[in-house]
Known about the structure:
Blueprint: H1 10-13, H2 19-43, H3 54-79, H4 84-90, H5 95-111, H6 124-136, H7 153-189, H8 196-220, H9 225-243
Helix pairs in contact: 2-3, 2-6, 3-5, 4-5, 7-8, 8-9
Amino acid sequence: MSQSDDKISDAERHLPLTPLDEALLARVQSLVEIAEAVMRNVGRPYPAATDHGAVLRDALYVARLAEQLVDRAVVIERERDASWTDIGRAAGTSRQTAHERWADHVHGWALAGRRRTGPRTGPADYAAANLDTWFAGISTDQPQAISAALADPEARRAAQDQRVKADRLRRKIQALKNANTAARNACYEALGTEAADEKRAAWAGNHLTQARAYDRLADAEAPLGTEHKRAAATQRSLAHDILDNKTTPAPTTDTQEHPA
């Protein structure tokens, strides 16, 4: 930390971690779980003769933890501004394959507020302190190996502001998607009238406003920046098609899926 512990208030100490620190802490937690599982298995290499399947169950458990570690590593790389091409190269595959494999996981991370989730989450500083204690039992010359690397309160405040901004933009986009049904229906009802051009412009304007919101969301939510920019481009394309009369509105109801 850039400030000593005695200069950090309780309020600052309990600020949410930056998304990158959250992701890194989740990775350390996965590594500890793997290490503990491995040590348990090393400590009892021979299960009871009648416990058929025990060795396989233990191995599968470690494999699941390893897969979780990989997922969390991808989140970290996206938080560190790695492109999907970078990730694909590291995984020995293509950009597209990497995106198909891990995009949903990164999306879930973003929807969770870019914070750790799960039964062992707990307050960040408390979790870091526990991990410090665990690691100090192995490496006594590094008593605060994990907590000492966490970002200072100023960085945490800035990150929290971005989280709030992203949440606000997501709600705005959803409201625009909901309003799009009414805009589209109004355009349909105005066909052949003097109000047709005005209603068509309003419908297109809804999509353009969504595009601008997605552009801002790409800046506020970097791990999904590629996806948000693609969504913005789609919204602009839809707006241009509407204005060029390439899209014929059809009546929709609230029970139908809203256009993107």
